[in-house]
Amino acid sequence: MQSDDDLKSMFVGTVMRKIKSRTWKKQRYFRLQEDCMTIWYKSKKTRPTSSRVSVCLCVSIVSVGDVEAVREGHQSEVLLSIADEFPPDRCFTLVFRGRRGNLDLVAESAGEAQSWIKGIRKLIDNLENMGQREKLDQWICDWFKKADKNRDGQMNFKEVRNLLKMMNVDMNEHHALRLFTMADKSQSGTLEDDEFVLFYKMLTQREDVLRVFQEYSSDGQKLTLQDLKDFLREEQLHEDGVQQYALKLIERYEPSDTAKMLQAMTFDGFLMYLSSSEGSIFNPNMVDLYQDMTQPLCHYFISSSHNTYLLEDQIRGHSSVEGYIRALKRGCRCVEVDCWDGPNGEPIVYHGHTFTSKIFFKDVVTVLGNYAFKASQYPVILSIENHCSVEQQKVMAQHLTQILGDKLLKSPLDGKIPIGLPSPEDLKGKILLKGKKIGGLENCMNGVVDDPLMGEVSDEEDTKSKQRLSKELSDCVVYCKSVHFSSFKHSQIHSKFYEISSFTESKARKHIREAGSEFVLHNARQLSRVYPSGLRTDSSNFNPQDMWNAGCQIVALNFQTAGVEMDLNDGLFSQNGHCGYILKPTFMRNTDERFDPENPQNRDGYKPLSLSVQVISGQQLPKVNIKEGSIIDPLVRVEIHGVPLDQAKQETRYIDNNGFNPVWHDTLQFTIHVPELALVRFVVEDYDKTSKNDFVGQFTLPFICIQPGYRHIHLLSKDGTSIPPSSLFVHVRITKLM
Known about the structure:
The chain is an alpha+beta fold.
């Protein structure tokens, strides 16, 4: 890649403007580093001292691995705000993974902008196409560069000791010197490239995996085809086509051509397999789309966002179309807008009666049209909290119709009076409006139009505004008519399949507690939405699991707030192609069955399972304390989230001063009563006896997606982004109890 013209230009460096707002535009010097993995840019900053003002150079670093995408032109709110000042062919935006803000840039010329746009896209593609071994080599190279303080391409022993602290390793000096001397083949007193790789391999020797390898190896040197088949059957519990699968693993992961010819696997190949997606705890067959997508819409859990326009808190937070882009790109299928009368007849979106900033409704609709189906082809529900006058409601309807065109569903699919909700498959590529509607779907189909509705235009309980509804906006609502909830008995007699009720989290919990099985039945017939309490002004989240236990489909969370609640949401929707729809268990879809989440053992087909997790070891856990010399004391907690009877958590002991390769060999046992609803969350924390433990990393997945046997768990950051090569090594067993 070093010879690429665009990258050559990036190596030389470019002066560009970094834009934060219409008034904040500063020149910065940007340059791609030789590793093709980092971009640094520097600025001059003035700092007042007691007698004078000093100027210092500040260098900031952008890791290419953190960049999710590059947008060309005026494709951010910041760049749109300066569109009259800089042409679009000089502007571009770096969009980062997780919840980190964008970096908006303006180049001096269109040619320079194109070099950076194309160059960064090439670097992203190259990184995404890297194999495991290449990624590991890159990671080793990164550490070498961090430790090589004087940049002479060599590392002396002092630099190696500093490196060990950076890598979360607390090793006594004698042992570190022994490894250093063994790796220093040239006896120069320093380590060069190849010698450092040898040092790293000695440092990361996986005794835990070697023990498993030797247990199944006939000669202690390799796994014959039969050895590998025995391992796959006895430990990984593979049953069908084991020989073909074993041959496929050898072909895919074995680095030695000689071993491949012998149909054998060396230790390096075995470790590569266990570190791959096939050796992951998450069953790769469930990562892609695998569920039936032809059931009625109410038979699915739907990834849903609350007050999607907010990037921060609910009182003074910033409103932005970026909130919609981020949620939709994460597979969210139900987004929300709070609409109010705006200036010059244009409806605006913000959290009413607060100090949150405002954006135009038409800009939200434009973003929806552009991003709705990038992550998933399945339908998006636009949940409207409508506080607008009839005049501006007409403008809303006009924007929806003109901007979305055929994507907006404005009539039943087959043109006939429907008898039930369509499926996600039927609604592919469609945007559905959820809101108040004049009359019923049947009336509209028969040409009967009621007078404009005088009633609650907003269905959230903390806003009881009463106003008239425009026919134009009402006509945009088809399968998601918002109605007030009276009681389960009333709904059973009077409700229509296309009606949807919204519940605050506290009301939903009350219904679950008092009439759990009725709530499950209600949700087998029609949609329900649950949203956070108005008291959550900090944009915190409630536990979505409680609502999924009752079959509630649209459980709206504040996507901008990281934490266990969003980990659970990401975990549930990480299966089935990340499409934003998860088919509910059969006992939650069948109106003939009675399932009470509070008493799950009473249901038909009750088959509890035992889950045994041996937490064996951890690898290259990230530092959480930037204080020099600090090393973590890691522990692992395994949490079960599901029906109340399944809620449980257990911890390993903590390991003193070792975040690099801690070993536990601790076994944790759980009973799972409703495996179809359970999520398992693995959390690593830095133990602190005097204060709250610090978060290190986590991974959450549905219980039904767990692969048994020896597995690696690839950890995620608090933001849900990967932190390679940080992982846990575990052994999992699932057995029937009845």
